[in-house]
């Protein structure tokens, strides 16, 4: 690792961000050279970051992955959030050829049948659009928190993502759900009404259920799978290349 390598920059940023507030963390990234992209799922953590960007009108691009399988409440929230904070949220959608190839190989809802099929669907509907959203970015801002799941317990404030060739920034890494709720209350941040119906973590409609009292926050995501560390591949590489269908 050299003094000006991205690994070194990420390490230095990690230490700098640790001592800063959320607003300061975002302002630090916005002041850095290079494009910063925040990808929002419209979940409550991401709404906090969107609010902080919007309230300060920071030069950070806000993007979302419109998978084509989102809840109506999530789609409505995109428009409400744009209006509330005077920002534009850029939608990245899957390619129709990819969806057709997936459906031909696995069936449109084939993700229930195997982990391989589920990873392939997330690849087509999330990972490919994510790559488009991050094209040319130097920084990728996310709403990951350490207390969301055991899989995220070691989330740093900044780290070099060698696979994508950018610095991943997690400005809420040390926030608790209580911190999130307090910010939402204080700033009147619009949130997904599904949160109050037992959905702390909301993804695509067919792959998200409400959780029972005492269950981990992400237990309602891909609930039919047994792996405790299940993710969609956005933040943890999961999909083996053989699982990915090639568009016809
Ligand atoms: S969460 Fe479900 S519907 Fe959405 S991309 Fe992944 S497998 Fe497909």
Automatic annotation (TrEMBL):
Pathway: Sulfur metabolism; hydrogen sulfide biosynthesis; sulfite from sulfate. Residues 36-210 form the Phosphoadenosine phosphosulphate reductase domain. Its cofactor is [4Fe-4S] cluster. Binds 1 [4Fe-4S] cluster per subunit. [4Fe-4S] cluster binds at residues 121-122, 204, 207. SUPFAM superfamilies: Adenine nucleotide alpha hydrolases-like. Catalyzes the formation of sulfite from adenosine 5'-phosphosulfate (APS) using thioredoxin as an electron donor. HAMAP family: CysH (MF_00063). PANTHER family: 5'-ADENYLYLSULFATE REDUCTASE 1, CHLOROPLASTIC, 5'-ADENYLYLSULFATE REDUCTASE 3, CHLOROPLASTIC. This is Adenosine 5'-phosphosulfate reductase. It comes from Peteryoungia ipomoeae. The gene is cysH.
